[in-house]
Amino acid sequence: MATFEYAPAPESRSAVTLRASYGLFVNGEFVDGRGTPFKTTDPATEEVLAEVAEADERDVDDAVKAARRAHTRVWSRMSGSERGKYLFRIARLVQERAREIAVLETLDNGKPIKEARDVDVPTAAAHFFYYAGWADKLEHAGLGTRPESLGVAGQVIPWNFPFLMLAWKVAPALAAGNTVVLKPAETTPLTALLFAEICQQADLPPGVVNIVTGAGATGHAVVSHDDVDKVAFTGSTEVGKAIARSVAGTTKKVTLELGGKAANIVYDDAPVDQAVEGIVDGIFFNQGHVCCAGSRLLVQESVAEEVLERLKRRMATLRVGDPLDKNTDVGAINSPEQLGRIQELVGVGEAEGAERWSAPCELPTKGSWFAPTLFTGVSQAHRIAREEIFGPVLSVLTFRTPQEAVAKANNTPYGLSAGVWSDKGSRILWTAARLRAGVVWSNTFNKFDPASPFGGYQESGYGREGGRHGLAPYLKGSER
Amino acid sequence: MTRADVRKTYKLYLGGAFPRSESGRSYAVEDAKGRFWAHASRASRKDARDAVVAARKAFDGWSGRTAYNRGQVVYRVAEVLESRRDQFEAELRTAEGITASRARTYVDAAIDRLVWYAGWSDKLAQVVGGANPVSGPYLNHSAPEPTGVVAVLAPAGPLLGLVSVVAPVIATGNTCVVVASQPHPLTAITLGEVMATSDVPAGVVNVLTGPQDEIAPWLASHMDVDAIDLTGVEDPEAARNLEIAAADNLKRVRRPAAEDWLATPGLDRMTDFLETKTVWHPMGL
After folding, report:
1. Which of the residues B116, B178, B213, B273 could staple to B152 if both were Cys, CB 3.0 to 4.6 A apart?
2. Is residue B218 part of a domain?
3. ipTM higher than 0.85?
4. For helices B67-83 and B160-171, what crossing angle results, to 10°?
5. CB distance A449–B136 less than 8 Å?
6. Which domain holds residue B100?
């Protein structure tokens, strides 16, 4: 099949000025960390981007103390309308520095610039804008007539959407009157540190936002700190369970947004071209580093052959490579460790007897890459049908009846998201009502909006982020 | 000669039936004056697991009913409780040694609580869900759904606390396994008789009697239980251990807290055991 040839269209790096080293952001200032500094790299080129301070327990304690002071003396006393204006300022600063944030995100994370530019950054700005407006309307949120902030929130975020997850965590916390200590992922700390600058430019009172960089030990210090009132975590189910155990017997409130193994159900009456686009978006968006990725395709037997043929044809046109190229569809795998996990599970898939097909594409020689891949002949017992791969790997299963589709879709300990493709409205609603998942995308996939609650059933965690629901986890007396 | 009365055997309420504990064990229950009143079944780990199976089996049917219908069933429980109020008042006086007027207050409150929650079943979705104005051509709405099988560790006392923790769980479509207050198990089983004759489907409410510290850990660690209400756990260390066990499958946990059962409740006993589902659909030609 003839395909268009694209000339390279690289986004300029000039919007970004990298510093050689970055400190922690505590009480409104950048300070040295007491731990061992670590390097953050561009996963597409293996280039070292900067050295970043590691926060140890004492640093985390300083950050929590700063957050506590800021909460007691300033932020909890400030009127909601004043708090809201700071959040509006932040939203505007994010929009003003959008290009810079997008390029930096792509450099540090490896995601395609078109996604950082068109999804991550504008959605993050929208999130601040949305919650800014809630700050002086909390008594109308249906969560009690005198809603009160919890205090200090300890927040730990993942590397797949570094800046967007920061916005999801920080915006509702601040709008509700809490102060935060946030730990970005160790492989993607740079946009969070850029956000620290934005807080300075917004003249946000010192200590309202504190950012401590580091790996698991730093995160543990944040969530287990005695003076943290609220823990918000996005990441693996395994760590989420450890956090749930560690807060047992305390009064800490917890929100957990964890793993997923979403079913994407394609019925025989689905518009096939749209469904194929949705399947591709569902699993190859952000290299499949998406907790709500549509990683299990459930396609009705009568159309399976046609859907798979068109899907493979479409996958063959995906452009894998330089994340800064504006035409790139699939960027770099975030880290060699993650690449190793993907390769391991793909190996298991082959060993267990599923049939692998990878899109024919040339991968760069340096950096971490994985070609868009699907498995057919997958049974429900296969590990690639049960475990989160967190990469561009799709497991394809088939079904005959709607009942079977629902039973297979729900046959997982997770329950974050699901997709349904059909031309028949009543069938979509019937299916959506039976899927045990927090977000159901019908005839679409991977859509996110600050007004739309997001979060899982079962082992995908608890609590919701986004919308009015996203305020509840940050207010006293309200539901999770 | 006076007639010897026919005394009732108190058993478990499990899957809509009243079986003895499979373990064959029982324990003596005393009245408020410390006299032998009756034996209660001492439920085992196996009974707890059987109860979870019954609750799981009932979940699809109960959660699939219309909210209006669930409200009618919970209201029916209130009606049947009202019709048997003399029996409950007498049991409360025997169990707790309280005055007739106090017993009446508690039974009134228990009946009224059922009516309150019955009314919520077809209203809560509008209060805690709704349309989300997303920035794009999509219909997007959120609605609450029941979490699933809820283990309920009922608070001390024969009736009001028990009704106050069970009604919110089932009104929204969950099914439950309840561990009744250890010193006051008999009224819980009598309440089971009310459930069994109020169109509550078998398995929606299952009542176990026996030592909480023996039964609760099996429910807290059970991988097919979705949530646990620790209201009736008085020892903080026990509550902590149950919360730790509950993390194995990330059960939703409601921690124990001071309660005033005569006060009008908030929504939290319902919302703690609900999941928000958000559905997107494109709009276009």
Report:
1. B178
2. yes
3. yes
4. 160
5. yes
6. 45-258+269-282
At A230 the three-state DSSP class reads strand
Query: CATH says A21-258+457-474 is which class?
Result: alpha beta
Count how many domains chain B has: 1
Answer yes or no: A291 catalytic: yes
A·B CB contacts under 8 A = 109
Q: Tokens 């396994």 belong to which residue?
A: B177
* Chain B neighbors of A441, CB-CB under 8 A: 280
Contact residues, B window 262-281, toward A, CB-based 8 Å cutoff: 266-268, 271-272, 274-281
Give the position of tokens 């049974």: A379
**Cβ contact, residue pair B280, A459, below 8 Å:** no
Buried-exposed string A114-147: b where 16+ CB fall within 10 A, e elsewhere: bbbbebbbbbbbbbbbbbbebbbebeebbbbeeb
pLDDT tens string for chain A (480 positions)?
566 688 999 999 999 999 999 999 999 999 999 999 999 999 999 999 999 999 999 999 999 999 999 999 999 999 999 999 999 999 999 999 999 999 999 999 999 999 999 999 999 999 999 999 999 999 999 888 889 999 999 999 999 999 999 999 999 999 999 999 999 999 999 999 999 999 999 999 999 999 999 999 999 999 999 999 999 999 999 999 999 999 999 999 999 999 999 999 999 999 999 999 999 999 999 999 999 999 999 999 999 999 999 999 999 999 999 999 999 999 999 999 999 999 999 999 999 999 999 999 999 999 999 999 999 999 999 999 999 999 999 999 999 999 999 999 999 999 999 999 999 999 999 999 999 999 999 999 999 999 999 999 999 999 999 999 999 999 997 544
Q: Which residue has the tokens 């010897």?
A: B4
Q: Side-chain half-sphere of A115: how many Cα atoms within 13 Å?
A: 30
DSSP letter, residue A473 = G
How many residues are present in chain B?
285
Domain harbouring B186, CATH code: 3.40.605.10
Q: Looking at the complex, does the CB of residue B135 fall below 8 Å from at least one CB of chain A? A: yes
Q: Which chain A positions have a beta carbon within 8 Å of B236's beta carbon? A: 249
Fold of A263-442: Aldehyde Dehydrogenase; Chain A, domain 2 (3.40.309)
- Is A439–B277 a contact, with Cβ atoms under 8 angstroms apart? yes
Q: Is residue B6 part of a domain?
A: no
